[in-house]
Design brief:
16-stranded mixed sheet; mainly beta; 2 helices
Length: 349
């Protein structure tokens, strides 16, 4: 269940938009668990049921400042969460009485929490251009990572055996970190320049959109078993991402030739162990995607008011996607899928 409310307060210099969202979340799970034999009780498989609930509160506020009619300043503070995957919430426990351990899902895992702040300045150049720049920072807590702790539940107890004090390894809330960076963007067309330079009319349709994002991030992972405490970048984030689009908009024709480049980024956290004070990966360790380039083409032509022809070319550069474990010198996958082309006609009624 969710409830959301917001309001806007106007001033001579701009406005403040603020609000909050409240969520009540309940999770129930069922899984068949193999129970080892205990004394005269034979080994058996039983259905284990669990439930948990949480109330989440997300306030936010955005200040919009009209510095001049063409220049806007924006300051925002927001809160958000990232819920665990359903696979991580299932009570699919594996029990070892010999080792006094439990592993598997964690029905009590809480969502990750993020508190972000960003500040931007935007210049809307007359008549068509746009330039913006800003900085952002996000604090991350209760990061979902592999954790080791005491089971502390009677869900697996049987007569004569208390398993609540067994060691428990599963996904849990054990890390913290941050993400910070800088973003710049530019957009404009050749229309004004072409007109002032008395260029042919068709030249007015050319334009460009470009952006670049630079980030630095860090997540602290707790020690688990033989794995040491360590720090890694936030999964899914690259140190730099560049985008540029060459555009044409005129005579009912719309063309976008887009290029994107991003530096390597993490996909998943792996296992590590300490040997002589140095952390070595177990199997592949952390998994990363290597740097990536994408070239795409989009063409639209408005034949009539209700009929549009379109053509899309995806992955035109056909650069291979490469994954590696721990460091770039240990590749584990390389794949290429070739370009893909889609075309057709759309009818609007």
């Amino acid at each position: 269940m969710a409830l959301y409310g917001m309001a806007t307060t106007e001033f001579d210099w701009g406005n403040i938009v603020y609000g909050a969202r409240v969520e009540k979340v309940k999770n129930t799970g069922e899984a068949y668990v193999a129970f080892p034999a205990v004394g005269t009780t034979p080994a058996q498989t039983r259905l284990v049921k669990t439930s948990s609930s949480d109330t989440l509160f997300y306030p936010s506020a955005n200040v919009n400042w009209n510095i001049t009619p063409e220049v806007k300043g924006r300051l925002g503070v927001s809160t958000s969460t990232s819920r665990p995957d359903f696979d991580d919430l299932r009570p699919n426990f594996t029990v070892s009485d010999a080792n006094q351990t439990v592993s598997g899902g964690n029905p009590d895992a809480k969502p990750e929490k993020q508190i972000g702040i960003d500040a931007y300045v935007e210049w809307y150049m007359n008549p068509t251009g746009y330039i913006s720049g800003g900085i952002f920072y996000k604090d991350i807590s209760r990061v979902l990572v592999q954790t080791s702790r005491v089971f502390n539940s009677d869900a697996l107890d049987v007569p004569g055996l208390d398993r609540s004090n067994y060691g428990y390894t599963s996904v849990g809330n054990g890390g913290s970190g941050h993400l910070k960076g800088l973003e710049i963007a530019y957009s404009d067309t050749l229309e004004t320049f072409a007109q002032s330079a008395h260029m042919p009319a068709f030249m007015e349709g050319f334009g460009v959109n470009a952006s670049a994002t630079f980030t630095s991030s860090e997540v602290s992972l707790p020690a688990v078993g033989t794995a040491p405490a360590r720090k890694i970048p936030v999964l899914g984030t690259s140190d730099a991402v560049y985008n540029i689009q060459l555009t044409y908009e005129k005579y009912g024709l719309s063309v976008r030739l887009a290029y994107q480049y991003r530096t390597p980024w993490g996909q998943s956290v792996g296992a590590y162990r300490m040997i002589n004070g140095v952390a070595y990966p177990v199997d592949n360790g952390d998994i990363y995607w290597d740097s990536d380039e994408e070239v795409d083409l989009s063409v639209r032509y408005q034949i009539t008011k209700g009929i549009e022809a379109y053509f899309d070319g995806v992955n035109l550069a056909n650069q291979g996607a490469r994954r590696y474990g721990d460091s770039a010198q240990y590749p584990i996958e390389y794949e290429k899928f070739g370009p893909r082309f889609i075309g057709g006609v759309r009818f609007h009624f």
